Amino acid sequence: MTMRRFRHTARRVAGELEEPVREAGRLARKLGLDPYPVNYWVVDYAEMNQLIAYGGFQRRYPHWRWGMTYDRQQKQDQFGMGKAFEIVNNDNPSHAFLQESNSLADQKAVITHVEAHADFFANNDWFGMFVGESDLDAAAMLERHAEAIQRYTDDPEIDREDVERFIDAVLCLEDNIDQHRTIGDAATGRERIQPEDLRKRLDAMNISENVRRQVFDDEWLDQLAEAEAAAARLDAPRRDVLAFVREHGMYYDEEEGKAVEMEPWQKDVLDMLRKESYYFAAQKMTKVMNEGWAAYWESLMMGEERFAGTDEFVTYADHQSRVLGSPGLNPYKLGKELWEYIENTTNRAEVADKLLRVNGVSWRNFHDIIDFEEVQELLQPDPAIDGVRSDTLDRLAALDDDDPRVDWETLDAALAGDVDVDAYPWKVLTYEGLAERHFSLVKPQNRGFLKRIRRSELEQLSRYMFDDQVYDSVAEAIADVDRSAGWDRMREIRESHNDVTFLDAFLTHEFVKDNHYFTYEFTRSTGEFRVSSTQYEDVKKKLLLQFTNFGKPTIVVFDGNYANRGELLLAHQFNGIMLDIAQARGVLERLYDLWGRPVNLATIVKEYDEHDVEVARRRNREPTPVERGTRIRYDGDEFETFDLDDEITDRIRATDIDYDTKPDEWLS
């Protein structure tokens, strides 16, 4: 970890933060985190807004989007719509930027938050998909891209407006990649097997010419071959639209009046922007997990481990309440609550597993026999572990010499007065000691969580339990509880999941009920929003739909030679949510610049009968729409709309939704 100094104010702030940066990194590692090293930079207000506009980096390619984002961020600050606390990027080493005007309490909160982000970057498989076996140096990659695109804009042989227009077109498709595969694998796509021409099989068969002409005439054979070829393409759609356009796209040359090959600079720019899309994909795919992970460990370090000083705690509490209390779908709040739920359920299963091994205890009589108040008392951390202060070190020293909860070397230094344990009590404890000190089931907000365990869960735990007569008493069983089980499980999940699988696996009925989640929808009959359901299945489905494919429509390539005219056919994998047709048309206009020939989009639209809407309004219900398959075609001048045949309409219905699969399948 390194502090970077510039102006006088920045140097002063950096000096104040040297110790918090050093100690936060040490605490993070004590808690079992394994982050990338972090370089911290102190910046002013304007520099912070610029970094936010650039996505956390100091250099990006020239484009109007950065100025637009900068202006939006500046207005948010100006009108109190959001304060920038920090920004950190996924790199090795990671780079975090601290705004010099923030309070020391805010800076400490940011630092602890950043250390957890750096751990997530370093250990989550989805971030690893972009890196592969190579070293991650994203800042250098983005700077190279910026310099290369700047050279193209400065080249007198290339019209600057052409470069900007081309970038605009590519950016319309920046999320149309195959985020579940590495950038190299996605570029190749799945191999498409061209169906065998029936003529070859007929040639090998002993059929008379007369029968062949009557039954298998050439026109029928041509139609069959075309239909089978089209079906083969539709059965293996390409998710990486950018890669397909790079491989087969052209551009329309107005002077020549036809589509021509892309210029080398266009292919180069497309390659660079596609690579950046894959780099940023992991951040978009893990927003809830990543922010929740950082919020969880920040809260533990700042609050429970008192990293925030006594005079800083109120400021920090205000900081966290603003972050977790922001309206709408809040990834910090949802993610933190899910991580806490995973910790609690894992610890509950660990305790229940031990209690079910007590003589006389079974899943049937568990709630009748177990004294939950007694269990709560037995689960309390050892006072020597829980109450570490400079005047209580003798209690730690009195523990057995091989006690794994104590960092004996640091304890000796603390007894000699070389460690400030009043400021940093965690220094004399190990991971095991900290896990006991922060065991989630003994926290006041979680009292009763163990008692709420369902009989079905107890039965499942007991089903394969052979050694169920291990302990003679509850006290013996609790003494064997692994207090680090929850943290261990959290780190396992952090490695393999993304937001979709995270929500799919851990958003349960119990979680939705305890945290009061619900769904709402816009009603066409009343023209207003209303609560539509409190059922966990509905909450889960709606959340999954919002996070599948970055929360954006899934568009795939069906055919690069549609109707045998060189036209591009894209398809919207319809999951019940209709496209914004006006936006879709805008994208097709941009896509035409990358394809050079007519482009088509197959989708499904919902149509409502005005009479049905009026009847539904009077009966306080939603009208039932008619779903119709539609193909939108743009030829460079005008749009045309056609009906889709039933076969293609059925093909584009998203029956195989992303969230039906698991990480091991995606990563295979």
Automatic annotation (TrEMBL):
- Domain called SpoVR protein-like N-terminal: residue spans: 16-353, 483-551
Where on the tree of life does the source sit, at the highest rank? Archaea
Family matches, as Pfam families? SpoVR, SpoVR_C
Q: Can you give the residue ranges of the SpoVR-like C-terminal domain? A: 553-604
Q: Which InterPro entries match?
A: Spore_V_R, SpoVR-like_C, SpoVR_N
The name on file for this protein is Stage V sporulation protein R
- Organism of this sequence: Halogeometricum limi
